[in-house]
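Worked example

This section walks through a single chain of length 340. The input is the sequence exactly as stored; nothing has been trimmed or padded.
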Amino acid sequence: MALFAIALAAGAVIMIRQRVSRARSVWACVVLGCALIPSLQVVNPLSFCVAAAGSVLFVLLVNQKLSADLLAGLASAICFVVRVPGGLFIDMARYRKRPISARRPTRATGALRGWIVPVAFSLIFVWLFAAANPLFERWIEHLSSFAEAWAFHPNRWVFWSVAGLMCWPFLRVRACKLPKDLAKDLKAMQPQLDGPRLTSLFTEAAVFRSLLLFNLLFAMQNGLDATYLWGGVTLPDGLTYAGYAHRGAYTLIGTALLAAGFVLFTTRPGAAAERSARVRWLVLLWTAQNALLVQYCVLRLDLYVDVYALTYWRVAAFAWMGLVFAGLVLIIAKFVWAKS
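Given that input, the structure is written out below as tokens.
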């Protein structure tokens, strides 16, 4: 942890675009060094908080954001800490305010942008299926040692995503504003359904690629359920039908809800994909696969009830699945009768 804090401090120094006095640099290094001493002995919540406080003071000192007045300096430190979780989003809001000509992507950037939505949502669905289906999880674990160590471990993705959000303000101290401007920045970053940034991600081509990948993934998941739940094929060693059924019921319902939200958003009136015939057919196929997925969730829960018992919470789960299935049927009806 101490090495990480030193690396973060070095990054903050590299990002400074102004000359820092020698005395201020010495004081900043002394503060950071003293704050890291407890973490060299033992890492616990207290030593972590001391190291974090030392890092904040170091960054504010070298960026000349710390006033000599004690109360003013304390207020600056508190404001910086409060802004840490939203620093990246505030910078994104400011980026949106720049002229379009200054943000025009290159041809390579435009090509890569068309794959952001398909790849990102496909990874989310793969993670959900791995959490819901032990067989899916075993297949992923056997891909390679690299995939097992990094690509499909959600805990590490979440950790490094949060760490990135926390570290960004340390590298962009000059981008911080006063608290009165924070609400304005957050309001400016609210998603605009028909704005140029969001439209460039959810193009007709991107939605088409997404639906192709999603249909393949859902076909694999539904095929496994059909084989083991309806076909009665013997499960691999170490797996029981009750465990297979119970593990994925709730996760797969969440998957169906996410899929329904994606369909409603990408095919809203006026969207680029809403007018494409090939997208409409893929949407209908994927929605039908989601409806089948919900039916398998009901079957999973029914098998689990047969082994154990019917409780009030499981009755509520059946009702919840029925509501999700009804919503998917209404989405299909929306497309068939061309309703809003």
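What to look for: Residues 277-307 form the longest helix (31 residues).
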